[in-house]
Amino acid sequence: MDKIAVISDIHGNIPALEAVLKDIEDRKISRIFCLGDLAGKGPGSCETVDIIRKKCEIVVKGNWEYFISEQEDNEFEEVLWHRGILGKERLEYLKSLPLYQEFYMSGKLVRICHASPKDVLKRVHASASYVEKAELFEAPEDSELDSDVIIYGDIHGAYSQCFDQKMIFNVGSVGNPLEFTLASYGIIEGSYKSLEEGAFSISIVRVPYDIELAVQYAIEKKIPDLEHYINELRTGVYRGKKK
């Protein structure tokens, strides 16, 4: 069976990214797909973009890529800070990323995206309604078929669910997990690009990494909203919630 590692939401956290890539290498998985939010929040946006471009076969656009490279009127302090360090060439790359990609695996049409195949800003939590989840499978305007499997990131919380004979899979976050403090990514297994029905599996992987090293990098770079960022790394609790 073919194995594909699916990563998302690195957010410039290099120690977390390196730990996840090492785990993927140890499992002898050579194909990696990335679901966006390479940059933003953490201090290593430039390094993350460079690594992802080198390591990942497919990369789709996240909401932070949109904020930084396309939303010119966005003057949020964090956006301006990351836009300022990335440089023109990286910003053009982020702007060029597609909203989604799709492929067959063991006879199933798999569509991967950051938040939704139709809208990079449409957030669908694990607790979302039936209607919200059903919409994830609908074909975007430039595609013809509803998907059998939807794989996404964005919410920083991994889960999988069977849904009307279909499958939803969220791979969580590499660099800013908001369930607990381990980096998260997904593995899908099956026959890649095969139209023939066959075995298909998904799994969630949790990887420990050096959180205090990531904190040190953030302090050294004097990133915006430093206190909130550090608290999220150390506790896995979103800055908009109280522990």
From TrEMBL:
Keyword Flavoprotein: no
GO molecular function: phosphatase activity
Superkingdom of origin organism: Bacteria
Statement: the UniProt record of this protein carries the keyword Endoplasmic reticulum: no
InterPro entries per the UniProt record, alphabetical: Ap4A_hydrolase, Calcineurin-like_PHP_lpxH, Metallo-depent_PP-like, Pesterase_MJ0912
Membrane-spanning ranges: none
Name of the molecule in the record: Metallophosphoesterase
Lineage of the species this protein comes from: Bacteria, Fusobacteriati, Fusobacteriota, Fusobacteriia, Fusobacteriales
